[in-house]
Amino acid sequence: MLRQVEGSRAVADAVALCRPEVICAYPISPQTHIVENLSQLVKTGQLAPCEFVNVESEFAAMSVAIGACATGARAYTATASQGLLYMVEALYNAAGLGLPIVMTVANRAIGAPINIWNDHSDSMSQRDCGWIQLYAETNQEALDLHIQAFRLAEALSTPVMVCMDGFILTHAVERVDVPDQAQVDAFLPPFAPRQSLDPDDPVSIGAMVGPEAFMEVKYLAHAKQMQALELIPQIAAEFQQAFGRDSGGLIRSYRAADAETIVVALGSVLGTIKDTVDELRERGVKIGAVGITSFRPFPLEPLRAALEHARRVVVLEKALAVGIGGIVTANVRMALAGISLRDYTVIAGLGGRPITKASLHGLFAEAIADRLAPLTFLDMDWGVVNRELERMGASPASGPHAENILRDVGPVAAGPV
Amino acid sequence: MFQVRIHGRGGQGVVTAAEMLSVAAFNEGRHAQAFPSFGSERMGAPVVSFCRIDDHEIRLREPVMEPDALIIQDPTLLHQVDVFGGLAPDGFMLINTTKSFDELGLGEFVTGFRHERLLTVPAGELAREHTGRPVANAALLGGFAALSGLISLDAVAGAIRERFSGAVGEGNVAAARAAHAWVAVEMAELSGAASG
User: What dotted CATH number matches A2-196+206-243?
Assistant: First the structure.
């Protein structure tokens, strides 16, 4: 049924349709509306049987999800930013134990400086913790990916993180097609756990493993993600059969087949990129885009096939690997090993800075002229940066960066947007 | 694509206004995208929300920097925040106020625009009359329907009822109808003055 709802509501409805038996959550912006909606569905009995557990921290949220999933219950949680960092130890445990938990990450920047707005620093920091990571471009895709995520997680017995841009998607009200319960039930069978704690048939889960077998156990998480490279497109194809929508998959090409310049990105910014690509195509510019839906596992082969004919690749990233630059770029380069083309890393949208069509036009023009630096910071105010660098040079006690820079920038919220 | 920017303060229902506008457009079979400025969610702080309306899927995710229409819920923002930024000379603007543009200190400013597209409406007063509270968001949408012709008053009423049930919903629908009528009269007077 078509509905005009907030992204968080759409995701909550999708999760509820997947019949989770345990939901545990600790609220953090911009994830809060998702779990608020779910708590209401549990409280009113619309989602039953399901236990909603209010926990005291994100560490507890993931720990409860681990416990619930280990007993054979379908478990779900959601978090963002510092909350994701606070559950890191448990994230590794969920992956290492092979527990198919599904979690939404409402992508948000990581402090300091503290900032509630969107970027991908949080989920990118956990790219190697063993969870599958899927990135949604729209609220419809966020909804669809959650239904696919439970299928994928349970088929492989491995956890899946669905990443959606905080505020930009979670708080956007737009059209979504919400499937009905019978459709989801037909697509997602009841959870048949690979391992289960049962007092009537006791087992232990979580043995200590020494050097004699650690690598082998650890490798299995990797083996599962390699299987996911096959399974993710299969599930997306089945989803399309069942629901009539093309969502999910490993990567998505947009007007890239004959493109000389291809922009690679993840998440909601792809919409603005596609609009910009269309405007440039009208002027005869051979440009296209490739969206990475599955960042873990990383689709090396499909990405190579999608990019290898291009003359240049612009990787637009919403996270910064301090000390080197791009995270996505490093992965994309691996997909392009041995192929000679120009690649550019663009760090954009950190801490919620809008990524505008106007800025993208300027950026792509520079890229097409091959005038772009290997590492570019989109819309960076270098005056502000340089003044603080000067203060640091002038005095060994120049004070805190954030406060100095905020004084320099002047009052915020005086502009229109 | 038609882009609307709504300015107000935290607690005035600015985000809800954009959402209801998007629901009204959706109910008329159109694509719509409403989102807040993601700023500081504090009572009284300046808040901005946005709504895009189009006949096909909306992919653009940037804030609305060049609005086709402005709705200003709180006139105390006029000289504090750059509310007019990016408004095109043929854009629409509706301000919630009992004052005239001259009294607001905007007499000269409005001459740069099509005068029949910039109007004021006492939406807060109309809301107080019909709901007992001076929350102007729903009333402004009624006025905006009349001013822009973008959406019908019935679609606005439907969106209000989806959001607010019972007496609150009906009161807000009545306020929206009153604001719609107010703006329609004002527009008729302006076009009469223009042709006379």
Answer: 3.40.50.970
